[in-house]
């Protein structure tokens, strides 16, 4: 299914200052019944990440940490079974998982001689049973399972989505008899950064030549396009595929694929041409489309 | 000097004798007799004693004759063409124009028409300094003599003794010393290449915005009658000579039109006003550099928006004199006595297309006292004279013209003036046009491709450390980011390279520490450079100063639009006149600015090394040298390929050499030559110690000897064009210039004997050399130096072997690509057409650009010995395509052979290595010893097998080559030829493959085995289960199972619901839970979408779910009373989980989490505590072998550390002791319900 930019914006509009919890997601689902939960979750996650990026720093000042920790201690002192940490996170408008991390770090600092390493923290967040304090372990666990935008579980879901869509994409390519090299093959050849697939024979989609495909399994909004481009894909401009560049010379076409499983998948290619509105082209399956949100 | 000309004009000396005399002076050693223009009768070459005597007295003046003549012609034309024929000339001050300036336009606002003929003041200075400015002295005098002394000044100064020269004093036609007057100053020959002074017709003002453009002059309506002669009305008016009647409606469209008596009268007045205006301007701008000081600038512009005056052969004033001078002039051109052939042609075409003059001959002659002398009266008294002269010269230069591109030929052939003055020439031109296939497009195909990733050089193995590799990766990304930004933004106004990108580039350069990273980066840089700029003139798209030619963009039917355009535009665009200074157009600008901004010594050094290497490599590339076969049509097709390849190599070389020159001379480049001689001497002394970046002299000599000048000279010219002011004075480079000078002289176009260079090859060399001689940094007098050292040059004539020079490798396209300034001729003619108001519309045609393709890999010629000679002899007798085919096949098969060996033999060995390693690991235990040692052992075992590679390689080549040769050669090839070709192909391919294999096979095996070892060792490491054999889904599976991500998400929701906080009405139904576990089973069985991390999380979540079930913590939806899961349901769910854990999960399930303090804590919190489910679960786990008793025991042991309520600990101990104490309890006795019953009882009893 296709989501237009306007629809996206409408959804994003509802997500301003909403805590990333199950309840919020439920409300969102009621508000947009036509969108699948996964789509909404994906957009939610993306928008919320933007929000966190903006506000991240203020939660990490030593004063803030100290005050959160004291509030936590007071809270659990009163009632260890109450969702102290989760409420705290929601109250200060921060992701529960990230709040859990802050408190855990602070807690470990107090109780261990050496400052905790990142890997220790990560491992405790993945498995709160390792947290020496039972109350804190429960609090952290609660934060993690209730957070729908951050945390090891969410990370795993995202990773799984990425993998699944890679598989879907591969099936699609095989179905279309497109010859390609996948990431493993590319890595074996010594490429440092690799897209998911490089087409050995380029194809033209919607008048654009596509040389390689990367599935990102997250909603392809403008901001993330830019980030991905910068982090990963610009180097492809020069590398595995010969890219034709249009005279205006900018990279701006990023089709996204949606499928019946409801997840958005983004295929990036460096197409050229004048900016268009959302162009839709049926790629291969009735439920799978290429979407080119070029004209942001 | 003028005496010579005069005696010629008086016919005291024959032209032939004069030319011989000049030529001798030019080639004083007289190694070759002066060759004669073909048109001359034999008798003309007989020496007349009288003539000889007349000339011998003038002997010291010989070499000044040509500069004098050129000067004279320019001078004359300037008088006659008031709008100032914008013949570009070398600017006296143009040395200030740095070639490296961004954007390319020459700098310096000194460009004034008047400067071409500098005033007396500099000339006298120059004369005074004559001794120091002598030719022999490379250290010429500084100051104005050097600065302003135009073309050939050195020679002139030497020969003429200052002011006493007959031309220095009173015989100057105009007041000498008045700055800006077109004086015939003998020491101020024309500076032929200054765009500022003589911008080409229709060129964009090349100077910076601050400079007052010398060409754009709005017509000043000086009287009421002129009101109609605004440019736009002129523009649309029909040409006078063809539609005179139409003028009746427009009384006086041409202000200086003939036959209009009132116009004549007012003309006088107007001229008077103009003169006053001019003198006023002169006073306002005292410097001779005043852009509008002379040459009638206030007159309507030269951009063709004035109707041209018709030219009439009948009204030519002094035919004979013009003919004579035209003959002399043409002879000088033919003998290459002029520095730049195309500059002269440009000048001639300007004369041909001169629109009008200041004065008509009857009415406006400057009062010249004693104008009896033949030189005193103006040579060109009218447009008719100009055109006549031009046509005369063109007739002599027909041969060159006939080699110009089709468009130029068409424009020439359709020029109505030419038709009018010489129908014969027009006929020849038309014939040449019709026969020509030289379509040349002036539009450049855009090309901007990025260097692709080069696995063989860019991968990790080529870097010393991971760190270096990653740094390089980062740099590569920065580099391309910078490049992209440049591409997107460099055309934006106000964008500055240094400001925009400088700091980023330097930061990146700062990261390049190790020498090896420099070389990596330089390789990338160079590759990118070649890739982006290799296309003709290196323009990627439209670039400043390189705007596509308006004319060539508009079709024939668009001339109306063109006219409208021209009304708006000041001038049609141009790419910088016939002698543009070296620039870095298009993408080249990026690379230049990058080098400048990076300002890294290490980078520059590495770049120079790399460029030099590549230049050497390409320069010595064995370009195929097939005999130009003339018998079959096939040769033409073959030559296409040859030419393309040659063009690619040549263009690459030029680009590389240009950048080498740029970097090599960068440290020395300054805006001005050293101010004093002492300074210059000391610099020279210092610089002569510095070895050249690349031994170009040796390469040049080599090239000349091997008759490859056509390849070597063009790139050398590019290299030298970027030299600084001192370079031409250094002995080393001096000798190069001398060589080039002699080469230039020797390239007489009319000479076409056996073993001569092909015409277009010559033309290319003449064009590039002529251009070089006009470069600001090249001393102006260099060209006219007498008596160079010929000894170095004689190498050329020694070898007679057929070299590249004798092959038609250059075509018009390449010529125009290398020398885009030749296109100025066409533009000049085109602007004439457009200026004459469309009567001749349809001349300008759009031309489809042709492109060259990539340079194919060159087969190296390595065969030696008799066999090789035999093969050579064989090829000699066959068409060239056969050889290419064979070499191509050999090259490809050889390469494929190596790949094949890699994929078979080496891969086998790697597999062997892996199994050996496995054995080793088994025998030596998990550790297996030191990896390096292991590798050594393996390699010593396996590398000897590499010897097989050679035999296998031979077999491969033997098997594959013949078929390929057979497929590629014509079917009709005789059997013997075919089999020989096959054999040679086999031999060459084998040689190539074996050479590579024998050199590299061991290293290759080693590398692959090393990779395999590290792979295997890594696989031995942690999480063996994850790497162990994984079952895929069954064949019948259609992959319709729910996606893992979906399941994790669902289970997470259940967990969140259970953990809370939740709303009172929230909950899950038991059916939902059951369904969920069912789906989990499906997903785990269909593994299509499952990746290990997802599976691990699923496993963990399932354990968490089990804990919640055991602790009865899952809120259940249903009838309001029932908020807990029924025992039976819970047990069913646990059973499902157990079976999933046992049968479906392929990753280890963290079952110990069931007994983690946190999960057990869930139980501790419930009242009343219910242990039965937990006990049930644990027993099942043990029973199913999922957990061992000891494991459970360990978990329980760790529980003691936790702080529990006291009663809870006791309960724990009581409960688990029997469980742990039953090591071999048979299954039937362990009835779950019984256990539950008893346990429950216990619990209840205790509570």
Structure write-up:
The complex is a heterodimer of chains A (296) and B (1247). With 296 residues, chain A is of the alpha+beta class. Chain A is 51% helix and 11% strand. Chain A has helices spanning 5-14, 22-31, 37-55, 62-78, 84-92, 96-111, 118-126, 134-146, 152-175, 183-188, 222-238; strands at 180-182, 197-205, 208-213, 256-258, 264-266, 279-282, 289-292. In chain A, helix 4 (62-78) crosses helix 6 and helix 5 (84-92) crosses helix 6. Chain A is globular, with a radius of gyration of 22 Å. With 1247 residues, chain B is mainly α. Helix content of chain B is 54%, strand content 0%. In chain B, helix 11 (341-352) runs parallel beside helix 33 (823-835) and helix 42 (1092-1110) runs parallel beside helix 44 (1157-1165). The radius of gyration of chain B is 44 Å and the shape is elongated. At the A-B interface, helix 8, helix 9 and helix 11 of A face helix 18, helix 40, helix 42 and helix 44 of B.
